[in-house]
Design a protein that fits this description.
77% helix
């Protein structure tokens, strides 16, 4: 390794650590939803379908705000955009205070939407930053490292928040039906108030991080625009890159599958009869499985296997694990839903670089559109919630919708990523 290569790696390490911290924050806030779903279902007296509006409000913000986020980043740059995103997330956390005092589900959903808006801005900046910070061939490895930071936070967040807001909720659910109107209101109000202190702490931490990012020496990094060949010279818009749009579709279904495999699992465990003190850990199982998958990706990509081939293999595993989860019962079914975390782990790291490679000057706009695809996390879990409430389907067989998700991703991994690519 030359002295220039060593210097380049050292120059990249600082920004990677900072972005890794941001991905930790992404994970901590994002995967709190798995705990909020059963919590708000009780506190706000919701149906199963209504409780999954938590994921809808959170993830639909990515679709609504991603393109405006790209405009903001064009004006203020990556670093200032990240600071602004953290401040917006802090505002969303603070909205939980009036939501809890009034026990109004609409306010909780508004707070989640605002948090998602801040995350949309952060993700629009951070994901392409990681991708173009080094060689495109090793982008999946760098994104996998970010994914580990994200999922470690995701493992911790439901355990920490669950210990605070879900403590005693199983007993409360059993006693609610026998309570008088006044006692019931008092008990649910007390439950709602539990969420205030954790979200005030989250808001303070986000504000401090925004200041730290703002005063940091995080450099601006631009995607290199490739010299266009005879065919590429005609590509004046993103519509000239079909493989990119197929990547957007693949990412939409991937995020939907990932959110279903994490955010539904506590509720699923409760529907199977598990106690809350056991079920509250189930979503963490999925995230642990994802970390194992990320570690395998870091070791093997691209040294032993290409990111495209890895995407094919892990997508097939997703289909296999889904089939076992759907046609089994109890702990076996729960564990195979959790095992989807392993199958999902390599999908974001592989889909992202395969979709944006070679876009050059279109990279920022393309990244914003990719972030819009996170709306899959808004729609597919809601569909799962609807199906799981149908007596003819139920919570176990509703997971069959994931087979459609993985089939779409498999098409992108085998054929879609090549369509319209100049070196295909």
């Amino acid at each position: 390794m030359t002295s220039k290569e060593v210097s380049t790696k050292q120059n990249q390490m600082g920004p990677i650590i900072i972005i890794g911290l941001l991905f930790f924050i992404f994970g901590f806030v994002t995967w709190l939803n798995a705990t909020l779903i059963p919590y708000l279902k009780t506190a706000c007296e919701l149906t199963t379908f209504e409780s999954y509006l938590v994921t809808f409000a959170f993830y639909i913000s990515y679709f609504v705000m991603a393109l405006p986020s790209a405009k903001v980043l064009e004006k203020v740059g990556f670093k200032n955009g990240m600071s602004l995103g953290l401040l917006i997330m802090a505002l969303g956390a603070l909205i939980f205070i009036p939501a809890a005092y009034t026990r109004t589900y609409t306010w909780f959903l508004i707070g989640l939407f605002v948090q998602g808006t801040g995350l949309a801005l952060l993700q629009t900046a951070a994901n392409p930053y990681v991708t173009i910070l080094g060689p495109i061939e090793s982008a999946a490895k760098r994104i996998s490292i970010m994914g580990i930071a994200n999922k470690i936070a995701g493992i911790l967040s439901p355990i920490i928040l669950g210990a605070i807001i879900l403590n005693g909720i199983g007993k409360l659910n059993k006693n609610l039906s026998g309570m008088s109107g006044t006692d019931k209101t008092r008990a649910l109000d007390a439950l709602a108030m539990k969420v205030i202190l954790p979200y005030v702490i989250i808001a303070v931490v986000l504000i401090l991080l925004a200041v730290l990012i703002w005063i940091s020496s995080l450099p601006e990094v631009e995607a290199e625009e490739e010299t266009p060949g005879e065919n590429e010279a005609k590509r004046t818009t993103l519509f000239g890159f079909p493989y990119f749009w197929l990547g957007v579709v693949a990412l939409f279904f991937y995020v939907g599958a990932e959110v279903v495999s994490v955010d539904t699992l506590i509720n699923y465990g409760l529907s199977l009869g598990f106690e809350i003190k056991v079920a509250k850990f189930f979503s963490s199982f999925t995230l642990i499985a994802m970390i194992v998958g990320y570690l395998i990706g870091i070791i093997t990509i691209p040294k032993y296997i290409s990111q495209q081939k890895a995407l094919q293999i892990f997508t097939l595993l997703g289909i296999l694990f889904t089939l076992v989860a759907v046609f089994s019962h109890g702990y076996t079914s729960v564990l195979f839903v959790a095992a989807l975390g392993f199958a999902n782990s390599i999908m974001w790291p592989a889909i992202w670089p395969l979709a944006i490679e070679g876009l050059g000057k279109f990279t920022k706009r393309a990244s914003a559109i990719m972030i819009m695809a996170i709306a899959g996390g808004a729609t597919i879990p809601l569909l799962y919630g609807y199906l799981s409430g149908l007596p003819s389907v139920g919570s176990t067989h509703a997971y069959a919708i994931l087979i459609i998700c993985y089939s779409v991703i498999f098409y992108f991994a085998t054929a879609g990523y090549k369509i319209g690519r100049h070196h295909a």
